[in-house]
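A reminder before we start the practical. When you read a complex entry, don't treat the lines as separate problems. The point of joint prediction is that each chain is placed relative to the others, so the output describes one connected object in space. Small molecules and nucleic acid strands, if listed, are placed in the same frame. In the example below there are two entries. Take a minute to note the order of the lines before looking further.
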Amino acid sequence: MDVCIVSIGTELLLGQITDTNARLLAERLASAGHTSRLRVTVGDNHAQIVWALAEGLARADAVITTGGLGPTQDDITREAVAAVAGVPLERDERVAARIEAIFRDRGRPMPENNYRQALVPRGAQVIEQRKGTAPGLVVPVGSKLIACVPGVPYEAEDMVDEVLAAFAAHDPSPGVLASRVLRTWGLGESRLAELVAPRFDALWGTPTTLAFLASGIEGIKVRITTRGSDPDGVRATLDAEERTLRAILGDYVFGVDDDSLERVVARAVTGRQARVAVAESLTGGMLASRLVSVPGASAWFRGGVVAYDSAIKHEVLGVRAERVVSEAAAVEMALGAARVLGADIGVATTGVAGPDPLEGEPPGTVWIGVAIGQRAAARQVRLLGDRERVRTYAVASALDLVRLTLEGSPRGLSLEEHSA
Amino acid sequence: MDVCIVSIGTELLLGQITDTNARLLAERLASAGHTSRLRVTVGDNHAQIVWALAEGLARADAVITTGGLGPTQDDITREAVAAVAGVPLERDERVAARIEAIFRDRGRPMPENNYRQALVPRGAQVIEQRKGTAPGLVVPVGSKLIACVPGVPYEAEDMVDEVLAAFAAHDPSPGVLASRVLRTWGLGESRLAELVAPRFDALWGTPTTLAFLASGIEGIKVRITTRGSDPDGVRATLDAEERTLRAILGDYVFGVDDDSLERVVARAVTGRQARVAVAESLTGGMLASRLVSVPGASAWFRGGVVAYDSAIKHEVLGVRAERVVSEAAAVEMALGAARVLGADIGVATTGVAGPDPLEGEPPGTVWIGVAIGQRAAARQVRLLGDRERVRTYAVASALDLVRLTLEGSPRGLSLEEHSA
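Here is the predicted structure of the whole assembly.
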């Protein structure tokens, strides 16, 4: 089915909260094989809500609303839906009893206005409220449906399955829609587009589409979306397109879907049962923090030294290089981190975050060092942007260089022996 | 003005990314005194984008679009806006030259399709691209405006001021509108609302309004917005309301507007010409990274030890405490960091990020240690949420505790002498 999401709440229009429900609903709808061509956000205003519902029903087979089901006077989604469906609101005694029970359980007196949440458009299917006091609703409007879930995210999430079940019962044959995201690092969006352009053309007229998602420090994602009658066929199509794209993009692809650079590094490191330590200058702990963010990091991550002051590099890490923004410093920091913290693999960052130059080097000049045992090397990268962007990209560049080096990629570092 | 936000991107409709730009734009529009009655999200589809622009212009004085300004085949916002405005797209040589310069600086060849980003609807005002290759656009359509910013959040954020300036020039609203944000940490939103409720009532009917912005790790913001005939009067009103709110909230207010906890700590530290070092376990470098993010940190930040593996705590920091999730460990880590890294002030975090318990303590159990010279103490906090949330809140709690302790607040730590 084609579904329109209507988010209701003045706080959304004022930007006081982020609309996470819209994303949740969109994601669940897509994975259930539904398509979405439109999302509308309106305030707690009867005319606006009615307009959005009518536009949604005119353009889609179903509408899902989120928000406006609370007990207060500005929660008017029920009234708007009933008006669009052309049916009266009727008190559902089972819903009312459930609300009373919730307040009894909480040992709190129940305000009279909570009974508003027991009002249900005639003919609507009620989705029982388990997490809050507002029930969900599925309201038939002619040949179409309006489903309503609360604005509170965990209340909404609790009802999505039942909404999708109602949609499936209404339209049993949506087919299967599935997508897969290839995660890349190291290619600009336009260069990536150039490389993939032939696939865009080849896929023209097929149910398979490609899209780029530039997500900054997450790198650029290439999303494959396809549609078919059965899950196996759809999966086979995704597998085939992934193989084709990997053949084009090589190891610029570091993973798929939920993979992150740090998770990929974690897999490579645990694969060789190694332990990692880091030494950071300009990134100042950000590299360690991303590694620690991987659950189970304690199995392979020893720790790090944030050698922000040059003296720390010399005193704690035993760096002898005079210039700290240098290949020699990066190599010695990587070796020093592994030695001081008792790790097999050492990773180091040193460079100029800005705003001021350092040792005559402009902001964005970064050296990344990698040591495995006594073998080590470093590479310089030049990064654009302000202080935070330089630091963030330096961390991602370091993670990617470690990955490529551990994978033995020609784009990785070739390490050289350094005497202990 | 009444402004409609149009978010463009199939990835939004598929729920693959959260629409943070829509919130950013809505928040900035509201602070600038504009109203928003509608937000529409559509895919990378010409007909859908044209429909959304037309609906927006029909219902508002201006439309802001975000997304679809990239160089690739599916970035078609420029074409749709030109179609709605009824003007041709023309290549802007200054924009083209800037894009070429960006690629030159990066030492990368410029793909032909990047010239698509130099296409500008005739008569449009160009907002120079500083963070990416896509310029912003402000396109007059009859008596109304369409403004376009990129979908990449930091590129969009960089252009908001110029969009708002264009709106102000288009519709110079009577009088002056100004707002100030009080930054708080340590109070829940509902408790804060309780405390501030009397001010809401007192301000009823005046041109001054209060709003809460709960922004997670940034703490809860209280925004004062007021309107008046002259800048001085408006500033005086903001000053008076700030004083009133500070009297109510005390040192739960850590700063105003762009202040962050790390900047406030940086000011307090430089004020006493001290140097800081950190020792981190569960936060794994995140605390150091936030301190390093302050420009000029090299003047007062020495560095840190990420003692993720317990052995590092004992070997590198000289911690004697057996249990690492303990008051004694936090105190010894803070003292150890200052000693090993040659600092006057040491700050330490140790605890359980989860998902698994540690030393019998549940996830969210965190000890924060602070040492000034040989005087030190620690405090336990219990944090809710997943691994990343616990780590992030532990860092903010540590920064806040350092701030309160350095300010001599009764809510800070009372340090005790520890023999060297």
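Discuss with your neighbour: Chain B is about 40% helix and 25% strand. What might explain this?
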